[in-house]
Amino acid sequence: MKHIKFNKNASQKIYNDYLRRIERTTKTLPKIDRNEILMEFNSHIYEGTINTETTNEVDNLLAVLDKLGIPEEVLKPLVADKKLQQATKTFNPIHLIQALALNITNGISYVIFSLLYLFIFSGIFLIIAKIFNSNVGMYYRGDEFRVLGLIKNIEHSELKEVLGNWFIPAMLIAIIALYMITTLVLKLKRFINHKN
Question: In CA terms, which of 18, 57, 81, 162 is 20 to 30 Å from 37?
Fold first, then answer.
């Protein structure tokens, strides 16, 4: 991207600061998306500053930037959507966490998705706990499911751990399956939102 050169130092500083704010706001996105957004804004600034009737460069630039808006506010929905797109395409848990954090204020469904992922990731904690404590497992009393987790006084209870050494493989399979299904549903929700 070719940066715009202004005649006055004040205009150049305002312009450079605005571009830095755009870069800071979009830093979690892939480079191609960051560059695309930066070029789009740069194009609007260029068009706005060459097609002007006023002679004061600083005032003209400030008017153009005012029309474009505050980058942190204007770009928030776009960055959230792009991050969600990246997360559902790559299935990367770090991108998913970032996308949900950016979208948490965009409706109750994102809160529900966040809670689902929290539940899924708690399964990883259970796997680690099982490695260090044999009292972690899936417990039944008779034919009824009672607990998935840690039982402190197992010898004084009527509970029976049913998975034994299969607890870790079963939890891994369950975590992976739930993660994939939840992410695919999130991808479907994003697709439906864009269709409307």
Answer: 57
